[in-house]
Structures are given as C-alpha cells and as structure tokens.
Amino acid sequence: MDPNENPPKTKRQIFILSGQSNMSGRGGVIKHPNHTPNKRWNGVVPPECSPDPSILRFSANLKWEPAQEPLHTDIDTKKVCGLDSGMSFANSLRRRVAGELGLVPCAVGGTAIKEWARGEELYENMVKRTKESVKGDENTEIKALLWFQGESDTSSEHDAEVYRVNMENLIHNVRQDLNLPSLPIIQVALASGFEYIEKVREAQKGINIPNVICIDAKGLPLNEDNLHLNTESQVKLGHMLAEAYLTHFV
C-alpha cells in the first residue's frame, strides 16, 4: 500500500434489535402510583450500558445519532421503555471489533409472531428501517439480527404449536428481503411467559437453519411482574449475545 494513501475506512457494523418487550427493554421500569402513566423508568444506567462515541442508534425518524438508553424510547411508544440489552451488547463488542457499531431498534412490546409476518406493519417497518440504515453508504454492513420474542405466543396452545414455522418463515423472509441469504440471526429462548412457554421454548431451540443460533435466557432474574428481565439481567443478556456473536460469526 502506498504510504501516502489513506487506509481503507473500517465499515460501520449494523445490528438489528427486534422482537417484543424484553428486547425493547423494561429493565428499571417501576410502578409510580402517584403519577400518570403509573410506570416510569428509574433512569439507572449501569457502566456496561454507558454511551460511547463508537456506538450509534438509528432513530425513529431514520437518522443516526449517539446511542443511549433507553434505545427503544421512540420505537416502542405505547409503553414505558427502560433498559434493554443493546448497549451492553454493543459495549461488549466494541472492545473486540474495529469500527463503529450501529444499532437499529425495531422491537415493540406485546407483539405476537404473526404480527411479524411479511406484509404486516411491524415486519415491513423493520425491513424498511434496516434498509434505510445502510442506504447510500457503502461503508456500512448489516451483521446480524438479534431477536427476542415469543412471550405473547405462550398463552394459546395453537400459537405455541405454530411458532416454529412462523419463526422459520420470518428468517427466510427477512434474509430474502434484505438480500442477505446468510444473515446471522441470534434468537433468545424465553425467560418468561404463560401456560405454553415450554412449547415455544422447544420451538425456538429446535430451529435448525444455517447461521441461526439460540441462546437461553431461562433463569435470568425478572422484574416484580415476573415477565420482564430486570436491569441486571439485561446487562447479562447483552454479554451473552455478544459472546454468541463473537463465537459463531466473527
């Protein structure tokens, strides 16, 4: 290489964060009976989730900005968002990969897998946001989809039984629509849910598609609602997602 030439710029690595409330984050969301709404985020940001100049977030109005918690505040707008696993994931990763990290939050609480089917608003918005995040910029690269969803499918036996085929369809569709046939996908097996949780967990862990892996959130401590991961758990999940990505895809 000519010493007078500028070295090639390291690509910004893009990660899609999608699913439902445990991906959009409820860590640190507490009841506040004297206020409306009666829940609020306590504002506690552990060191592992601190902002860093190398970590960016794709906002609801399709602009890159410095990333900070709560990452989904303008995406999952009908509920109070708290801490999720995205910043912990990115901070774990930035120490071991070069270049900027771009997070594209897309998760929306309380959503079932059928609402993420091709043609549905949530799915189409996820694809649109992801495409816009790299549009006109050759210096970006979509690296993985991080997916944590399924609690809404555990209250109906039918929904639990068809979860696997619906998730496999989503994987096929998103890879096709982003023109990334080998896009790495990291699923999170449920930590909480309702009557048919084990059926959905079995479906999640049973998916056998190349470049699709599953990490297990079972046993991570929950908020008082026994449904959402607490702050400590979201930090740990971020580390788990980063380790899974580095181990399988770097």
TrEMBL record:
What keywords does the record list, in alphabetical order?
Answer: Hydrolase
Example GO BP: carboxylic acid metabolic process
Which residue intervals define the domain Sialate O-acetylesterase in the entry? 12-246
Q: Which Pfam families match?
A: SASA
- Known EC number: 3.1.1.72
- Enzyme class, top EC level, equals hydrolase
Any GO molecular function = acetylxylan esterase activity
Keyword Zinc belongs to the record: no
Q: What InterPro entries does the record point to?
A: Carb_Esterase_6, SASA, SGNH_hydro_sf
Know the name of this protein? Carbohydrate esterase plant-like protein
Which organism encodes this protein? Medicago truncatula
